[in-house]
Amino acid sequence: MIKLRALEPEDIDFLYQLENEESLWEVSETQLPFAKHLLQDYIQHAHQDIYEAKQYRYVIVFEEGTPMGCVDLYDFSPKHRRAAVGIALLPVYRGKGYAKEALQQLIAHTQQYLDLHQLIAYIPADNEVSIRLFEGVGFSCSGVQKDWLYSQGVYKDMLLYQNIFR
Question: Which end of the chain has fewer CB atoms surrounding its CB within 10 Å, N or C?
Answer without folding.
Answer: C
